[in-house]
Amino acid sequence: MTNEQDEVIVDNEEETNEEVEENTEEKPAKADKPKRTPQEEYEYHKGRTERLAKKLGLKDEKVESVKNTPTDKPSELDMGGIAYLGQMVSLKGKAEIAVAREYIAQGKNILDLPDNKFFLQDLQTLRETAEHDVAIPKGKGRSAQVASTNIDLAYAKFKESGEWPQDFDTAKKLKDKIVEMEAGTASIYARK
């Protein structure tokens, strides 16, 4: 008798498994909701804020400031404003963006900046200064180049006239250069 009961139990489990499989197959797929635009997303959150403030009994400046916040501020320099100025006046670099921000902080409109002669003049001055700074070589290598140039000049003068320089340091460096050059030519002949 125990065998029959065991069989019945196994049969019941199999039937329930089949029913579960059938139920999962019959469920329809959920349709995706369309995505909101940024403006719709803003309006949604703004409404939720207002409802939550009303529910909690809050009516202060924070909620009012959310209601009165404009979404477009043409007087604020954001990435769109930087892109606009980059297109109109070839605005590049942090220094030029800082100049634009200064003008906007003074109350100038972004859309008026490409026609503002003072803004354009400040940009031109900044660009000329940057070009000037790039043209001047930097570092301690500048002085070494001058010294080697002086020795080259002394060597050329010695080759033409056979005259040694009056300065002891330059004469010593000239002698070292001549010895070095003769050693270099001797090694070239030794290789052949």
In words, what does this structure look like?
The longest helix is centred in the N-terminal third of the chain and has 25 residues. Helix 5 runs antiparallel to helix 6. 6% of the residues are buried. 72% of the residues lie in helices and 0% in strands. Among the domains are: 57 residues, no CATH class; 51 residues, no CATH class. The protein is mainly α. The N and C termini lie far apart (112 Å). The protein is elongated.
Short description:
With 192 residues, the chain is mainly α.
Strand and helix map with partners:
Layout: H1 2-26, H2 38-56, H3 61-67, H4 79-89, H5 93-105, H6 117-135, H7 141-161, H8 168-191
Helix pairs in contact: 5-6, 7-8
Helical content band = over 70%
Unreliable runs: none
Terminal Cα span = 112 Å
pLDDT average, as an integer?
75
Please identify the structural class as seen in this structure. Answer: mainly alpha
Over the alpha carbons, how many angstroms does the gyration radius reach? 42 Å
Order of helices and strands: HHHHHHHH
- The tally of beta strands, per DSSP, is 0
Strand content bin: under 5%
Principal-axis shape: elongated
> How can the largest sheet be summarized?
none
Total count of helical runs of at least 4 residues: 8
Notable features of this structure?
192 residues; 72% helix; 8 helices; mainly alpha
